[in-house]
Amino acid sequence: MPFPQKFFRWRPHPWHGLEVGQDPPHLVTAYIEISPYDLVKYEVDKETGYLVVDRPQRTSSQPPALYGFIPRTYCGDQVGRLTPEAKRGDGDPLDICVISERPIDKSEILLRARVVGGLRCVDHDEADDKIVAVLQNDNVWGEVQDIAELPAALIERLRHYFATYKLIPGQPSALTVLGVYGCEEAFTVVRAAMADYELEYGG
């Protein structure tokens, strides 16, 4: 599928028109769709690049971290093969959660983030990894290198949020959090998502 050049006419498309990061897979760009204060799930419209309302959250759970995606990544076959329980990747850019000590209440912003780990998730038989990162120059978390250095309570909040954020009352959750992995596996997932993007959209 060729990359649609029309996205460059006025502003770069946040998925296709921005760089993946300063030093991927270690330091990446994060485009933020949702802040920890949002009770509505927003996401980038793939056609226009603008932020749209996906749905109000059905539960009282709030995102415990900034949540968005890494530009120029795609969860295709290579990402899917990293999760034996999945049949394929979910066809979206790679999701990322960014930990920041100072409250950030804005979305549609770009961050430089250091990848430290991830959550292995499956949604309707599709790999739906959530990369965990820290704000690169954060005064408290900026030197963290691996998810094991973050408080266990914070990781549990992330796990609980993703296990429940698609919950429909009376139905089992469509998304399952299979486990938590450290920085080396996260680097592998980011590389796979970058490679899937190249295969899907070209350079």
Radius of gyration, in Å, reads: 16 Å
The top level CATH class name: Alpha Beta
| Low-pLDDT sequence parts | none
- The number of helical segments is 3
* CATH-assigned fold name: Inorganic Pyrophosphatase
CATH homologous superfamily classification: Inorganic pyrophosphatase
How do the SSEs run, as a string of H and E? Answer: EEEEHEEEEEHEH
Supply the helix-strand structural class: alpha+beta
Q: Rough shape?
A: globular
Count of discrete structural domains: 1
Overall mean pLDDT stands at: 91
- Strand proportion: 25-35%
Distance between the amino and carboxyl termini:
12 Å
Features:
Inorganic Pyrophosphatase; two-stranded antiparallel sheet; 3 helices
